Amino acid sequence: xxxxxxxxxxxxxxxxxxxxxxxxxxxxxxxxxxxxxxxxxxxxxxxxxxxxxxxxxxxxxxxxxxxxxxxxxxxxxxxxxxxxxxxxxxxxxxxxxxxxxxxxxxxxxxxxxxxxxxxxxxxxxxxxxxxxxxxxxxxxxxxxxxxxxxxxxxxxxxxxxxxxxxxxxxxxxxxxxxxxxxxxxxxxxxxxxxxxxxxxxxxxxxxxxxxxxxxxxxxxxxxxxxxxxxxxxxxxxxxxxxxxxxxxxxxxxxxxxxxxxxxxxxxxxxxxxxxxxxxxxxxxxxxxxxxxxxxxxxxxxxxxxxxxxxxxxxxxxxxxxxxxxxxxxxxxxxxxxxxxxxxxxxxxxxxxxxxxxxxxxxxxxxxxxxxxxxxxxxxxxxxxxxxxxxxxxxxxxxxxxxxxxxxxxxxxxxxxxxxxxxxxxxxxxxxxxxxxxxxxxxxxxxxxxxxxxxxxxxxxxxxxxxxxxxxxxxxxxxxxxxxxxxxxxxxxxxxxxxxxxxxxxxxxxxxxxxxxxxxxxxxxxxxxx
Length: 529
What we know:
Elements: E1 2-6, E2 13-16, E3 26-35, H1 37-44, E4 57-58, E5 62-69, E6 82-86, E7 94-97, E8 102-104, H2 111-114, H3 118-131, E9 139-143, H4 148-159, E10 164-169, H5 175-181, E11 185-188, H6 194-201, E12 207-212, H7 222-225, E13 226-234, H8 247-252, E14 256-259, H9 267-275, H10 281-286, E15 294-298, H11 303-311, E16 318-322, E17 344-350, H12 354-363, E18 369-375, E19 378-382, E20 385-386, E21 391-398, E22 401-408, H13 415-421, E23 426-434, H14 437-446, E24 451-456, E25 463-467, E26 476-481, H15 484-498, E27 506-508, H16 518-528
Parallel strand pairs: 9-10, 9-12, 10-11, 12-13, 13-14, 15-16, 17-22, 18-27, 23-26
Antiparallel strand pairs: 1-2, 1-4, 3-5, 3-7, 3-16, 5-6, 6-8, 17-23, 18-21, 19-20, 19-24, 21-22, 24-25, 25-26
Helix pairs in contact: 3-4
C-alpha cells in the first residue's frame, strides 16, 4: 500500500509498504484523511503522540474510510461500515484503528467531509463540555475561529445551546467564515482589542468560557475577556507556548485556567473522549447542526503542497488528503460464515462403556448424571430406512453445556454404530437446540445438508436429526427440538448441576419420563427436591 512516511527529513516520503494488521484492531480502507497542525509538528520533531513509534512512522491522525477487516471487540462495526475517527498512520491506503476511537459516518456526509470532523469534534467537545463544564445558556469565546477546529467549536457551541458565541480571526477576509459557522460576534484581533470587543458584546461581563487555540501574546488578554468565575481552556499554542499573565485579574475574577492536549493521553482516555460525543455531539452532526468545513482535497503526491497551504494559514477549514483512488473495487462486506444453527448446547459422546464414562466425568467434577437404559427413539430412521436401534443414554450439565453419553445396545444401524465400528470412541456430535425445529430443519435442507438419521424422543415435540457433516470424527451436527417433556427434563438437569454438592452422582431415571408421563415427571421433581 501507499503511505506517507515521516521521520526521514523535512517532508513526508510517499512509499509502498506492507498493509498493517493487529489483533483486536479494525483495518479500514482509507478514503480520506484530515491534515492537522500536529502532523506538521510531528514532521519537524516538535510533537510526538503517545502511541507514535520512534524514528520513521506512517503519518496522519484523522481518518475516514470503510471497515475492511472487523474486530471481534466491535461487533457494531462489521466489514463495510463507513467510519471516521482518530488513529496513527492515517496517511495511507489502509490504516489500523482502535475500534473505540472511531464512529459511524452519518449518511449524508462524503468521506472527504467526514475526514474534516473527528479531531475538531473530540477537541472542542472535550474542552468545552468535559473540562469547562459547559451548560446551555453560557457564552463562549473561540480564539482562532477560522481554524478547522475553531469552526467546529463555533458550530458545536451553538448546537449545544450557547447564548452568545464570539469568534476571532486575524484576517478581515475570513470574517465571513465565522458568521457562516454561526458566530454571533466576530473580532479581528489584528485590528481590534480583544477584551474590549468582548466586553462590549457582553455588557461588560465577559464570556463564561474561552477556548484558545493560539497561545502567545494574545493569551494575556483572555482573563480580561472572561467573566467572573469563568473558565479559560488552552488548547493550542500556534503563536507560542510563552505568554505573560496578570494573575491579579485571574484571582480577582476567580477564574479557572486549564490546559489540554491529546498527545500524552492513553487509548483508554481517548476512548472516553470519543464515547462522550455520543449523547449530543454526534446527533448534532447527523442533524446538520455541525457541518464540515472543507478547504480543499489533495492527492498523496500533493501532500507537500497541502502542508504548505496549512503552514501559510491560507486554509479556511480542513485540508484533506484523498486515498480513494486505491479502493475502486466492491465495498468490503462481512464474509457469510455466521452459524445458521445458533449456539452449541450439547456435546455428544458415543462410548463403549457408559458407566465407566460417567465415573470418569464425575472425577472431573461434572454431574449429577441422569442415566436412562433401554431408550428407543420413536420413528427412528437411518439414511431414510426404519431402524429399531436402542441405546443407553446419560446426560449431565457443565454450566450451560449439556454432556450426553450414548452407548448402542444392539446391532441395528445408526450413526452411533458407524462411529464405533470405525474404531472411534468419544465426541461424536455437537447439538443445537431450537424451539422452532421445523424452520431450522427446512433451512438446513435448503442449504444443502442431508440427514443421516432422525427420530423422536418423547413424541412429536422431541424431534431430532443428525446431519451428514462428519468431516472428521466428532463433527456430526445434531439439530434438536427443544419442546415438551424434553425441555422439562433438560431444564431440571441444568438446575441440578448448578446446585450439585457432589453426592448421589449417578441417578437412574425412568425412560418414561421422556414420553411426558406425569407420574415420572413428579417422581423426578421429588428426587431433585
